[in-house]
Amino acid sequence: MKTLYAFIIIAALVAGIITLAPVPPVHAQGATCNQTATVSMASGTTIVVVSGAGGGQTFVCGFVLTADTLATTAQFKFGTGTLCGTGTTNLGGAMRFCDECNIPFARDTPIWQVSNPGTATATPDFCLTSATGALTGFVVYGKYQ
User: Which of 10, 36, 84, 125 has CB 3.0 to 4.6 Å from 79, enough for a Cys bridge?
Assistant: First the structure.
């Protein structure tokens, strides 16, 4: 039944019957989380959600993730190099999903701040790894120099 509901919502979006409103800015420690990054990833992969290219700081204020299978696990992290592979630091614990469930989280202050600590040579990327199961959703963030 969940698959049918998802299909109906996607069909309505494609047909223009319903639209998604822009994400309202969230003020976070003097910063505004006014950007979104789409998440769409296969099982067993890591993606860069927000690139550290150009330097600055990334404030993450919220996310909504939906899993496709029972026991999908996901982990946010930051690091440099290919797919956060160098100097990797996990953010929070690994998240485990139920079958076709989602995890929404948002607040008016940052969940995480990703920035160059002054000892690194590059500003870290903000990444997401799915150990099992595919994920879709979005992340709300702000990026500042």
Answer: 84
